[in-house]
Design a protein that fits this description.
This protein has about 475 residues and is mostly helical. About 75% of the residues lie in helices and about 0% in strands. It is built from 14 helices and no strands.
Length: about 475
């Protein structure tokens, strides 16, 4: 709980302990969004027994609320002054809200007229906690370093903890539920166990970033309306936002469809997700330091990101070849390949956010990392809000039949085709469009270096937007 340390040189290496401490927060974030994306809809429709359309609509309503809170949260953190800096107080508050909401989401009463209200209330609390923690959290790397490649190193810790959180939530979640008797009781245990992990990881991130470099709010002031207008002139950010929306929508759709695909197409026990997530996460842990970081340095972030996007597209289409009786080896190989390209998209897409934030500061003289983190989170949540709605509409039109307590229901050929559409075709289309968007992105390391030099040559530093 120390006072704010003086800013270190922006291009100085970030100590391992601070990288680790910041990245640790992503463990809780990953458990939250992976459980939400991969488990919650399945839990509500196959364990609690809610109608598919009702569950999808409740999730959509909560996500739309979640979306509109991001920008205000970013602006609030930009304007905050405290002995802990602008961002860290919200990490602590968000940790408490996130842990409480996770426990509620997987302890839904199965009967009674208040079930839908309980679900909506828990989802709204989740949305609030996620925003309070994640928006200031995402703003921190832009302050921690001004080095183009050091930011990639910082974000690599986030990717590692995201893969661990993914494995815990999606890989071990169903097994933990089965170990505690399955059904409502099993998923209640999942809620309590993971809420504790979320709390520890997020509070740990608050503690671990106590000595991180931070920048106080800008002394240059403009009306809020003028700030938004100049932010919208940030072309690299708009392209990044479009790219991230499409790729996050594709990833969320794959994850939302997995348990439905495993149960109804492959006809396997949900426990097989342990092997899937282990291979998926292992791919990231291996390829991020050994391949993606090196490829980024060699050919540039956005070119490496293009390669990752097209690779994910091809592997996603391979789900069309999957059928009952597929070998565990092939299932695991597909997971490893998806994890490889997803890790590249995750790492390299995130490292572009501090770059576009710095580009904004060089253009305008404003320190508004929170505004851009909030906008980025707005895009992320919009994708995750749309994904379950798209999926439930497709499955509803295809005639998918819900069940209670995970009972098996024989689905029609049309319903099975709806599952294939969600897990393969929709993600492929999203990644194809995202790749086309990425061809327009031009904020390279060389361009940033030139902008820094121009700002340094100006006697009074960067001023209002002039381009």
């Amino acid at each position: 709980m120390s006072a704010i340390p003086p800013p270190a040189p922006g291009n100085a290496p970030v100590p391992f302990a601070i990288r680790f401490g910041w990245g640790l927060g992503s463990l809780g974030v990953a458990i939250l969004f992976n459980a939400y994306s991969a488990l919650l809809l399945f839990y509500l429709t196959n364990i609690v027994g809610m109608k598919l359309e009702v569950a999808g609509m409740l999730m959509f309503i909560a996500k739309m609320y979640d979306v509109v809170t991001d920008l205000p949260m970013g602006i609030l953190s930009d304007r905050t002054r405290s002995r802990w800096g602008r961002r860290r107080p919200y990490l602590l508050l968000g940790a408490l809200l996130c842990a409480a909401s996770f426990a509620m989401m997987f302890n839904v009463p199965a009967t009674g007229t208040d079930t839908a209200a309980f679900v909506l209330g828990s989802l709204l609390l989740y949305a609030t906690g996620y925003t309070v923690f994640n928006v200031p959290y995402l703003a921190m790397p832009a302050e921690m370093s001004t080095s183009y490649h050091e930011r990639t190193a910082i974000m690599s810790f986030r990717v590692v903890f995201i893969q661990i959180g993914n494995f815990l939530a999606v890989g071990l979640g169903p097994r933990i539920a089965n170990a505690f008797g399955g059904g409502l009781d099993g998923y209640a245990a999942v809620g309590w166990i993971f809420s504790a992990v979320v709390l520890v990881s997020m509070v740990g991130s608050f503690i671990g970033t106590a000595r991180a470099r931070r920048v106080e709010k800008s002394t240059v002031k403009y009306p809020l309306r003028e700030q938004f207008a100049s932010a919208l002139a940030n072309r690299p950010f708009l392209l990044l936002a479009a790219f991230k929306f499409l790729t996050l929508l594709s990833g969320a759709t794959v994850f939302s469809s997995l348990l439905f695909f495993v149960k109804n197409v492959l006809r396997l026990d949900a426990g097989v997700m342990t092997f899937y997530t282990a291979a998926y996460g292992l791919a990231a842990l291996i390829t991020v330091p050994l391949f993606w970081v090196k490829l980024s340095r060699r050919i540039g972030k956005h070119r490496a990101l293009m390669f990752a996007t097209l690779g994910f597209l091809v592997v996603a289409l391979s789900w069309l070849l999957a059928e009952p009786g597929e070998s565990a080896a092939l299932f695991t190989l597909r997971a490893f390949l998806l994890g490889t390209f997803a890790a590249g998209k995750l790492l390299l897409g995130m490292t572009l956010l501090p770059d576009v934030t710095e580009y904004d500061a060089l253009r305008t003289g404003l320190r508004r990392e929170g505004l851009y983190a909030g906008s980025y989170s707005f895009v992320e949540k919009s994708a995750f809000a749309l994904s379950p709605l798209v999926m439930t509409v497709i499955l509803g039109l295809a005639g998918y039949q819900e069940s209670v307590n995970d009972a098996f229901v024989e689905q029609s050929e049309r319903a099975l085709m709806g599952i294939y559409l969600n897990i393969a075709i929709v993600p492929a289309i999203c990644n194809l469009i995202a790749a086309l968007v990425l061809t327009r992105y031009d904020l390279t390391e060389e361009r940033l270096r030139a902008l820094r030099a121009a700002a340094a040559a100006t006697a009074d530093g960067p001023g209002p937007a002039r381009s």
